[in-house]
Write a structure and sequence with these properties.
The protein is an alpha+beta fold. It has 2 domains: 265 residues, Zn peptidases (Aminopeptidase), CATH 3.40.630.10; 83 residues, Peptidase M42, domain 2 (Elongation Factor Tu (Ef-tu), domain 3), CATH 2.40.30.40. The protein contains 7 helices and 18 strands. The strands form 3 sheets. Strands 1, 2, 3, 12, 13, 14, 15, 16 and 17 form a 9-stranded mixed β-sheet that branches. α4 packs across α7. The longest helix is centred in the last third of the chain and has 17 residues. It is globular.
């Protein structure tokens, strides 16, 4: 997903008091959503290193689900039998950095993994996911002399003064880097953190599977948790090739980058958080046929599920299925401050999204 324009003042997660205690007063569906989502959010998995997130998903699956991992690293769960085959896909990875080199002064040179504004990470804590454990550091802020010019490339300082000392800490090229993150409950049903894209989609698929009435399924439904979405939909492309022309529809479960934030113009991408899942009628990678959008709306109304319809930027995993004749009908969830350290969601939307996935699987 592309980052949308961000509000100028974002409250750092580190200064927001945790309000997880409010969960005890929540309805069961909200509690379940928070329990699943918080575990996924607080697990790290930059594009290409999704293993820990995949393991969390497997641990949270219902006991009856039989999961398999393909050669790309995608996780699959198949339910039901017969045609038409319907696919749901959410991605496991998150944005971040990869170490490309270590300078003589011990600092780390980086490349981005995914699309975002690196300036959001300047002067923030860093976490190097080294082979022998995480190594703390900082994203080096720009020198004040560069305030009116293009800043130099972002680097990370792990507190050493030589290349040898950095390597002695277990850091090497190829390691991934993120900012430390925490799921934090805000007032009401809202929460903030980093990597809600696409931990919300991954959590919603888990919640839908937990509540799925397998007895009413009239065809096979395949749930996929894909890898390397942020760097080119790589995992989804492998799944699409494997399935070929077999599926009738694919539902990419991913972020709807919403203009529902203080400094956004309300003329594009508006889907207020807290008002339910979003049928992504149009984005930069796909156009959902009008008849399918209408059908999705009818399913939502029949099941009493909150659903919005909107257009947004970015792409989705389902777009790589369309060359095989598969119809892409993406379903999103509204997100404020996409691809930033302070993304904001509403847990009601997570519940709505899970309910929508279940309704589509059981009735459409």
């Amino acid at each position: 997903m592309k980052a949308t324009t961000l509000a100028l003042a974002l409250l750092p997660v580190s200064v927001v008091p945790s309000l997880r205690g409010l969960a005890a007063q929540d309805p069961p569906a909200i509690r379940d959503a928070q329990q699943v989502l918080s575990r996924l959010v607080e697990t790290y998995g930059v594009s290409g290193t999704e293993g820990p997130v995949r393991d969390q998903v497997k641990a949270l699956l219902p006991t009856w689900a039989k999961a398999e991992t393909d050669t790309a690293g995608n996780l699959w769960v198949r339910v039901g039998q017969g045609n038409p085959v319907v696919v749901f896909v959410a991605h496991l990875d998150e944005i971040g950095f990869r170490v490309t080199g270590i300078r003589d002064d011990g600092s780390l040179e980086l490349e981005t993994r995914g699309g975002f504004y690196p300036s959001l990470f300047e002067a923030q804590p860093a976490l190097v996911h080294a082979d022998k454990g995480d190594v703390p550091g900082i994203f080096i802020p720009r020198d004040s002399a560069f305030t009116r010019h293009t800043p130099p490339s972002l680097r990370v300082d792990v507190g050493t003064t030589s290349k040898e000392a950095t390597m002695a800490r277990g850091v090497s090229p190829g390691n991934t880097i993120t900012m430390p993150k925490q799921y934090v409950r805000l007032a009401g049903t809202r929460a903030t953190g980093r990597s809600f894209d696409d931990r919300v989609g991954s959590a919603a698929q888990l919640l839908a599977l937990r509540r799925l009435n397998r007895a009413v399924l009239k065809h096979q439904v395949i749930f996929i948790w894909s890898v390397r979405e942020e760097i080119g939909l790589d995992g989804a492309a492998v799944a699409a090739r494997a399935l070929g022309t077999t599926p009738r529809r694919v539902h990419a479960i991913d972020t709807f980058v919403s203009a529902d934030s203080p400094l956004e113009l309300p003329n594009f991408g508006v889907a207020p958080i807290g008002r339910g899942a979003v049928a992504r009628a149009l984005d930069n990678s796909s156009v959902t046929p009008r008849a399918h959008v209408d059908s999705l709306v009818r399913v939502a109304r029949a099941r009493g599920v909150a659903l919005q319809v909107g257009t947004t930027n970015g792409g989705n995993d389902g777009s790589v299925f369309t060359p095989y004749g598969v119809v892409d009908v993406p379903i999103g969830w509204p997100l404020r401050y996409s691809h930033s350290p302070a993304e904001v969601i509403d847990l009601k939307d997570v519940v709505s999204l899970a309910d929508m996935i279940r309704a589509v699987a059981e009735t459409w």
